[in-house]
Every structure is written in C-alpha cells, then in structure tokens.
Write a structure and sequence with these properties.
By secondary structure, the chain is mostly helical. It contains 5 helices and no strands. It is elongated and about 60 Å long.
C-alpha cells in the first residue's frame, strides 16, 4: 500500500487549526497572567508566559496532527507529513510576532534567551509532531489490520 498523498486542503486546515490554538490560547493566558499579577511580579509573569508558550506550541502541534489524521487518514503516513502539518504554523506565529515587534518598536528585540526558547519550541514541535503522528498511524493501522511491509521504510 503506497503512502497517502499530502493533500493541500487538509494541510491548510491543519495549519489554520494550529494557528487558531496558538493565537487564542496565548492571548487568553497571557492576558490573564498580566491582568492578575501585581506589577512587582512582571518578570515572573514573563517567565511563566515563556513556559506557557512552549506548552501552547505543543498543543497546537497536536491539534494540527489530529486534523491531518482525521477521518482515517493516518494509515501509512510518513513522519515528514506530521512535521509538515505541525511545524509551519509555529514558524508563522514567530514571524508574525517579529512583524508586530518591528511595527510597534521599530526594531526586533531578541536576546539570547528568547532565541533559545524559540529553538526549543521548534525542537519540541518536531518531536511532538512525529511522536503523536506515529502513535496515530500505528493505532489506525492496527484497527485496519494493516501491517507495514518488512524492511526499512521507503525514503521520501
């Protein structure tokens, strides 16, 4: 059985779902954190906000992978399909954040810690996409009674 094609419509739907999760959840949580915390704790709120960003990124990747796999479309999918579904929305979210910084500050302010968090976020996104996608694929294959052919997987 050949690997399924990566449909553009399904991929765009996965990206939109992930972007919606990133934007809505991040806005709600960050707004709540800054509204509740006293001014003396803003540095703590900023640190918590960074951790929340990592969790939201992982959640967005899970949503994108679930959208891609919906309707029995997980059987036989290679790992790069899951990465293609989950990672680009996070990259786009980071780029939008940089555009907002340039528009509001006139420059990009990224220190080493912010860059490290971005790299960590992308690494987590790739790992979550492959892990969740592979688990979904294996589960769908077991339910369908499909077993992969012996030997290494074909290169794509």
């Amino acid at each position: 059985m050949p690997a399924p094609r990566l449909e553009v419509g399904r991929l765009v739907l996965a990206w939109l779902a992930a972007l919606l999760v990133v934007q809505v959840v991040t806005t709600l949580v960050t707004g709540l954190l800054f509204a509740v915390a006293p001014i003396e704790l803003l540095s703590v709120v900023a640190a918590v906000s960074s951790v929340v960003g990592l969790v939201v990124a992982a959640l967005a990747v899970v949503v994108a992978v679930l959208v891609l796999a919906a309707g029995g479309r997980a059987v036989g999918r290679p790992a790069w399909h899951w990465v293609a579904a989950g990672v680009p929305p996070l990259v786009l979210s980071v780029l939008v954040g940089l555009v907002v910084q340039v528009a509001s500050l006139g420059r990009v302010h990224q220190d080493l810690l912010n860059l490290a968090v971005l790299v960590l976020e992308l690494g987590i996104a790739v790992g979550v996409a492959v892990a969740v996608g592979t688990a979904l694929r294996r589960s769908a294959e077991r339910r369908a009674g499909w077993t992969p052919p012996p030997g290494p997987p074909p290169s794509h």
